[in-house]
């Protein structure tokens, strides 16, 4: 059973949905967008590698807001528990569906995590493997091995799992706002467009998550960064989800790892697609693509656009270096919400992320610093406007002086 290009979810509604622009270089092909093949290492090997890496890493020193646990701290659910939590996987609890299977909304007690009645306790997202899935056991184990040990405010929390006979399920915290993809690209009267401030908040949160993965002593390469894998809580805090393709970074002084090419069209770094060489900064390229989507409100790949415009990076990357042309590519739904300087800085860091040579790309820590500077600039602007308003409000009216005419 192997890994594949593409996300585990394909759209059923506003939560847990994704595109399926998938590619793979494996030998097997079933003619679908989600095609499976053997990866270069098994999940068991991945687990032992990760355990060894964890014993050597001191992540707390590098990032006090995150840690790598020695062993997964996960609840082991029974299949009957999860049937009860979802009302026997009732259709009205369905959140999404894709290559892995279906995702359902369930309810559990906040303290004991035992199943509870709908609307009582804590809502969770339950991913149920389709027995015919080509993604299967390896990605299921990868999720448990990585996300079960990684703890950070900007990574989706894996609550537990179930492995009972042929039933494979994963239980996550429920991100009620769904994916960034849905908010950026769904044009619906009931869905309010994301403001510039919220988009910046989401970008910063996702950058913190990736930076955490990259700054541990044994770096974790996420490998499938895209808008559909960024989930949002009720306050639009971003959390990275779906670690089925995650891989440990290079060791022993190596610059990259070599592996089968897996990911999503439009987001995968060019050196990875061309050679199978996976760098930590291959993730940075994917982040740059998402930044471009955030700025423009356009998909990374859209075959409905005219020829020459279907690949967003190929189409708009040259424009990012032209200050006067920036306004023309910014999402019109954000007009008046950002300063020209903020747009320019966002464009500059996006362009750096999209460098063809991974050596020339910034680290995620550096990207995060730039995004935080843009956010700080926004705060200063608001304070300036507030001060100006207060100054006007507090100004005492001058007494009216009647000047008598010298001519009586």
From TrEMBL:
Lineage, opening ranks: Eukaryota, Viridiplantae, Streptophyta, Embryophyta, Tracheophyta
Species of provenance: Acer saccharum
Protein's UniProt keywords contain RNA-binding: no
Pfam families: PK_Tyr_Ser-Thr
Protein EC: 2.7.11.1
Protein name in UniProt: non-specific serine/threonine protein kinase
Main location: membrane
Chain's role: May be involved in plant defense signaling.
UniProt xrefs under SUPFAM superfamilies: Protein kinase-like (PK-like) (SSF56112)
Polar residues bias: start-end ranges: 386-397
GO molecular function, one term: protein serine/threonine kinase activity
Family: Belongs to the protein kinase superfamily. Ser/Thr protein kinase family.
Compartment annotation: Cell membrane
